[in-house]
Specification:
The complex is a heterodimer of chains A (371) and B (254). Chain A has 371 residues and is of the alpha+beta class. Chain A folds into two domains: 236 residues, P-loop containing nucleotide triphosphate hydrolases (Rossmann fold); 118 residues, Nucleic acid-binding proteins (OB fold (Dihydrolipoamide Acetyltransferase, E2P)), CATH 2.40.50.140. Chain A is built from nine helices and 21 strands. In chain A, strands 7-8-9-3-10-11 form a six-stranded mixed sheet, sandwiched between helices. In chain A, strands 2-1-4-5-6 form a five-stranded antiparallel sheet, covered by helices on one side. In chain A, strand 4 and strand 5 form a beta hairpin. The chains are: A alpha+beta (371), B mainly alpha (254). The interface between A and B is medium-sized, with 29 and 20 residues.
Amino acid sequence: MASITIKNLTKKYGNTIAVKDLNLQIKDKEFFVFLGPSGCGKTTTLFAIAGLVKIDAGEIWIGDELVTSIEQGVFKPPQQREVSMVFQDYAIYPHMTVFDNIAFPLRIRNVEKDEIWKRVEKTAELLGISSLLNRKPRQLSGGQRQRVALGRAIVRRPKVFLMDEPLANLDAKLRVKMRTELKKLQLDLRTTTIYVTHDQVEAMTMADRIMVQRDGIVEQIGTPDELYNHPSNLFVASFIGSPEMNFIECALAKEREGLCLDAKEFKILLPAKILPKLRNSIGEQVIMGIRPEDLYESGSVDGILQGNVLRMTVDLVEPVGPYLLLHLRCGQISLVATVKETNVKTGQEVIMEMNLSKIHIFDKKTGKAIT
Amino acid sequence: MFLLPLWTDLTTSFKDLNDVIYTVPVQPPRSPTIEPLLSAFNIMARPLLNSLAFTVAATILSCLLGSINGYALTKIKFRGANIMFLLFSIGIFLPYQAVLVPLVLTMSRLGLYNNLVGLILTHTTYGITITTLLFRNFYGLIPDSLIMAAKTDGAGTWTIYRRIMLPLSLLPFVVAAVLQFTSIWNDFLFGVTLARGSEAMPASVALANLKGTTEFNWNIQMAGALWYALPILIIYLVLGKYLIRGYMAGAIKG
């Protein structure tokens, strides 16, 4: 059990910067997710915490123990850090039985035989692999191998779990199942966990907090709710959520008493609540973002007061199951909306309304959120 | 056709001198005798033992060192690893003849001329180049995550080698061992230059010496050749199965 503190971490591979000046504080017992597209530096950060890569600048603390510091010349090798790791390809030792695999970290530490037995059995029971202990890895399915790798990580009760896309190699159904199990396991064990993934659904469902990275730079750190409802920039807004948020380029203009977004095809009057933040951007080009579920067919949901109506043509109706996807178009603007049910057909016109309390406005130049 | 020399060797080994003169080589002996085999063994026993000793020792040493080198070159990232590997590879192409003079000089200075240890050292050094290449290629196929997992599990460099790499390397060990055993056993040049005296004389040299200068005892020579070929034959029979698997197998899957 430990917190993790990272100060000014920088890592270069040749001339490319993998991680740039990263500062991060992970709380004790937290389930923390590094999220980002491939090559964003998330795995490098994880490896730096494990001590598997040497960094170029910065400090890493596990609990109150300094494990890496370039300035002070401190570097503890991985075997001296109390972290355990689960890899994408599981990395279970092919020549050992399941029992030996799970027992390996204990044997290395010269734990007594009886104690090893007890702990391996208990771990296997926890993961539901007690009947597989005498098998060799090649006789196991992907999901079972995954559990063995988890078992090996759990059995030594480390301060921190590090997981590098542990579910990426599983098929879709099993992935969802293991996701839930993993989360439950973490709630049981209460061990600080860092989990790397490029899958935003995994991140949203499992994390206490998420760090979104891109090109070695932190885009945002926050709870799933914060990232979803208050993305701090365009990248986070488009990366989180599926189907993706709709973006419309418009000008911020004065309209009578208040402000409106002018997108040529239509004007949207903004609610008074968000006006103060927009004062400095009047007359500038901005990007408006609205999530598909915040668009309604007019009249389909009661109690929406704002009368911002968009007249649009239906390009395509995609039934997903629990909801339908409406692909809409109006001049140059195309939007996607998710609706519960609809009678409209491809080619028809439809009047859409948007939930104005849920719109996001971003600076076009910097991509930063204004509201 | 390929087996004809072997057949001739077999038939001649069991012929007495009269048979050797009055029969065609491929013809079976008229009055079979094991006399030539016995007298050849009497002459060859010591050299065969010598050969066996330094061949086994040098094979084990060169395989072990090659495997450690391969591990270091693939799994421990250090500066100059590629240059190091290049140098090893060049060593493979170094002709034996080119090193003979300095080799003899070095060995005699070290007091290892005419000595089994000298032969072991020489063959090990020459063998390391090819075994390193072999093990490096094999270890390149073992995923790095396995090593990283072992590191986070708490294993140090040597523990990883001993408990992860070594148990996974049965196949390359068999391939390298057969390769090394055959080439060291068959070597004549190093043997004849480094160990002419009887104390350390290898079987290959002794076999050549069977061909006297004035008389030709074909039967004894053939019998000697038979003795000489025996260990290699046994090795191939015992390890052939693994050898083929080793040549074929790309990798173990992680």
